[in-house]
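Tip: read the tokens left to right.
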């Protein structure tokens, strides 16, 4: 690793964060859609959905909304990368004595910061809507850790179209299936209410294990094997996406 990696990454991270502070509408836009979904599901559909739980529906569906928030936010990572590629920023940095991978890591860490802010906003709105949790500090830290891992995994996925897309729309379009994924999970209704093939998919995709783990942590219920499945999904996706992203980056700057 280049000895200047951490210093270069910190400088480039500051550059990216300044761009966000100058246009906070990206964070606001990221949070608006999940909040609108939360309002619709709780106040329009919530009364008609039987989750088999005594707690309020906002408690049940918040974990899924948090995943949708992250999936919405990473589209901006791909967009920012695409604009930097088109603007020749990468070539400019490569002509300077900077660590090559620091450019990508700055974008990834910016995505992490922006998404964490959006997640906090969504949780605050959920509290206003009646969300309550008996979780202690350790449970909240565990939830934060899982969400951070999930954000990093999806962000490295976002790096790939951000580097290789041919248009702005192409750079961000990949996020739509990821936003839709929690709808085919236990995020909004129990999976046992779904027809056979849909239930089979729902019970064996990453969103379900992550949602179930976060929901159990919020209610201080035993998490069982779900937490290990969730961690395996997050770490596995993170490693594969990182390797593909770095390979794409090397081909682009070679």
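Filled-in amino acids:
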């Amino acid at each position: 690793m280049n000895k200047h990696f951490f210093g270069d990454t910190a400088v480039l991270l500051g550059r990216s964060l300044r761009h966000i502070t100058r246009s906070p509408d990206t964070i606001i836009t990221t949070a608006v859609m999940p909040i609108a979904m939360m309002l619709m599901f709780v106040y329009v559909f919530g009364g008609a959905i039987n989750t088999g739980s005594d707690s309020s529906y906002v408690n049940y569906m918040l974990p899924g909304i948090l995943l949708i928030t992250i999936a919405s936010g990473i589209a901006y990572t791909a967009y920012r990368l695409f604009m930097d590629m088109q603007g020749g920023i990468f070539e400019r940095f490569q002509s300077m004595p900077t660590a090559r991978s620091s450019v990508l890591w700055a974008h990834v860490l910016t995505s992490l910061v922006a998404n964490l802010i959006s997640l906090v906003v969504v949780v605050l709105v959920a509290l206003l809507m009646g969300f309550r949790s008996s979780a202690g500090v350790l449970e909240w830290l565990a939830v934060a850790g899982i969400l951070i891992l999930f954000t990093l995994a999806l962000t490295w996925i976002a790096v790939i179209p951000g580097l290789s897309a041919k248009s702005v729309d192409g750079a961000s379009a990949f996020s739509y299936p990821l936003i839709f994924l929690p709808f085919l999970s236990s995020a909004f209704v129990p999976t046992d209410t779904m027809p056979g093939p849909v239930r089979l998919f729902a019970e064996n995709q990453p969103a379900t294990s992550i949602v179930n783990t976060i929901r159990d942590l919020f209610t201080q219920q035993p998490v069982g094997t779900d937490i290990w499945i969730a961690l395996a999904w997050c770490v596995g996706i993170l490693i594969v996406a990182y390797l593909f992203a770095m390979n794409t980056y090397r081909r682009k700057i070679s």
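The radius of gyration is 19 Å. The chain has one domain: 5-253.
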